[in-house]
Amino acid sequence: MSVFTHEAMHDHQMLVFIQDKAVGLKAIIALHNTRLGPALGGCRMYPYASETEALADVLRLSEGMTYKAALAGLPLGGGKAVILADPRKDKSPQLWRAFGDAVQNLQGLYITAEDSGTCVQDLHQVAQVCDYVVGIQQKPCIGGGWRSGDPSPSTAYGVYVGIQASVAFRLQRQDLRGLRIGIQGLGQVGMALAHLLHAQGARLYVQDIDADKQTKCAQVFGAQVLTEEDFWHADLDVIAPCALGGVLTQARAASIKAKVIAGAANNQLEDMRVADALKRRGILYAPDYVINAGGLIDVAYESQGQYQAAQVQAHIEQIGERLHGIYQQAQHQGRSTADIAQETALHCLSHAQAARHTQAMASASA
Ligand code: NAD
Predict the structure, then answer these.
(1) Which of 137, 295, 327, 340 gives 20 to 30 Å between its CA and that of 284?
(2) Which among 21, 26, 68, 80 is annotated as catalytic?
(3) Catalytic residue check, 21
(4) 302-342: per-residue pLDDT in tens?
(5) Which residues make Cβ contacts (< 8 Å) with residue 161, sequence separation at least 6?
(6) What domains, with CATH codes, occur in the chain?
(7) Quick one: three-class SS letters along 29-64?
(8) How confident is the model over 261-291, as pLDDT tens digits?
(9) Where is the Glutamate/phenylalanine/leucine/valine/L-tryptophan dehydrogenase C-terminal domain (predicted)?
(10) pTM above 0.90, yes or no
């Protein structure tokens, strides 16, 4: 397995490989960029088919976190952890402690959180030995009451705001009533998104490998259940991928009927050429690390110890304006939205680096 020459190894600053055979822990932590602040990103547990697959995943995910934080205007860098294990049978208190020790050893360079295959209870165990864990504090809700530290409701809210902005731009519609919206993946984010869209009168079409979740969505929200094959060919207005990465392939880009793709999943594009293919067909793609930043914004406020629900909501709502700006620029320049988002994120990073350099020079000469 190549590391430094890996195709997804770009400007990554640090990789940490962790092994504790006694507790069955094999993990990789990737720090892509810490120019704006400590690298914050979730810990994914997944039974990867190979170590190469795990490495590719953590490299791509950590890079996406850098862009996500930069575009959300947060003083954070990009990082991610993957644990090569099956979340259904490999979790143990000892494993979480060993993982927590590894994160603690990085002394705040990396802050961990929940991701696919991990949950708030797991993070509480990590937090027993580690100070750098977020997504575990109970949070106030707008309008009263409390919820768990899980950032998924905030991610879903950001995606909902992003769908509204995308529909306004591409379909010239200010409301979602009667729009046919497909959601793939009815997990923590997808189900909360279904709730928000249903409340606005959208007609839902759903697909998940978990039949119980599909049934629940049909019963509660009147959603129509589709097979995976039908989902990507259905006559929909909006597609919200909320399950897996890599779902937007060249083949699908050539046949999708929806005019908007706006969902929570990380790394939706198989590669950047798919973004061009979508553009050529007039399909508006909401760059994933822009639209799914709600959860990161949520835990960023938590990590700063300043969680106020109204302030967090207002910050998440900026996702709509940010997407609108990217769409306008892409239209004017005849480029893909993914291209513009990446360029803007890189601009934010080099701006931050220049500011830091100027500050260092000023304090050296003082
Ligand atoms: P989750 O694990 O709770 O839900 C994922 C859902 O997708 C599950 O219901 C699962 O059954 C379904 N699924 C898995 N494989 C599928 C397939 N082949 N076809 C259809 N459905 C399938 O995850 P989540 O927290 O809801 O996150 C969803 C996506 O959003 C992930 O890609 C995640 O990385 C991304 N994301 C989540 C957050 C967050 O705050 N939770 C933040 C940013 C990005």
Answers:
(1) 295
(2) 80
(3) no
(4) 998 889 999 999 999 999 999 999 999 999 999 999 999 99
(5) 294, 316, 317, 319, 320
(6) 3-134 (3.40.50.10860), 152-337 (3.40.50.720)
(7) EEEEECCCCCEEEEEEEECCCCHHHHHHHHHHHHHH
(8) 999 999 999 999 999 999 999 999 999 999 9
(9) 149-357
(10) yes
